Amino acid sequence: MAAIVHPLLTLLASLTRQELAQQVTYLKAENAILRSKLPDRITLNNQERRRLVHHGKKHGPRIKELILIVSYSTFRRRIRTMEEAPTKRPKSKAEGKPGRPRTGVSIADTIIRFQKETGLGYTKIVQAMRRLGHRISRQTVKNILVEAGLGPDSSDHPHTWSDFLNVTPPQCGSATLPASGSRRSKARSISTSSSSST
């Protein structure tokens, strides 16, 4: 009985292998067609990368024949990085923000208090903060004050440049210096003209 069952099981196993091989061949052809319609570079997120590594790692070097999205060397590098750092925790949102860290709340409160109590400008506040031991830039002071609603008002500079030019007397606007000569010659001419007038 065992002599009959064993060859029968072998035959069934080979049939299922052949079917699986045909399915894999079909899926590879389908993937090649789909891949040809996609752009040259496909970007993957971390979850998709982990999924590919999880399923592809089982195939070993045979994955070279199957892999289409990334090169084999990239795939191997991803396996190495995932094996080397399995205990790394993902960054929280606060740690992952790009750029400089925000200025501390206590420093921002001090800047706002300086402005409200003294009415100092940005540069004077920076100097006062440096005397207190905090190194911050003028732009940081400006950003904090604008964010707190204490930025410059239009009433600080009521006139535009064109208003200034219209108010300026014409004789002030037409005065020009001689185009030629150095500073020394201008200074000599001024000193000689003043001495000759005396």
List keywords for this structure.
single chain, mainly alpha, 65% helix
Q: What can you see in these coordinates?
A:
With 198 residues, the chain is mainly α. It has helices at residues 2-37, 46-56, 63-66, 72-84, 93-96, 105-118, 122-131, 138-147, 161-167, 170-174, 183-196. Residues 183-189 have low confidence and may be disordered.
Q: Give the rounded overall mean pLDDT.
A: 75
The tally of beta strands, per DSSP, is 0
Fraction of residues in β-strands: under 5%
**Based on CA inertia axes, which overall geometry fits?**
elongated
Report the end-to-end length measured between terminal Cα atoms.
141 Å
Biggest β-sheet description: none
Alpha plus pi helix count: 11
N to C succession of SSEs: HHHHHHHHHHH
Poorly predicted runs: 183-189
- Report helical residue fraction: 55-70%
Task: Write the SSE topology.
Layout: H1 2-37, H2 46-56, H3 63-66, H4 72-84, H5 93-96, H6 105-118, H7 122-131, H8 138-147, H9 161-167, H10 170-174, H11 183-196
Task: Briefly say what this structure is.
With 198 residues, the chain is mainly α. The chain has helices at residues 2-37, 46-56, 63-66, 72-84, 93-96, 105-118, 122-131, 138-147, 161-167, 170-174, 183-196.
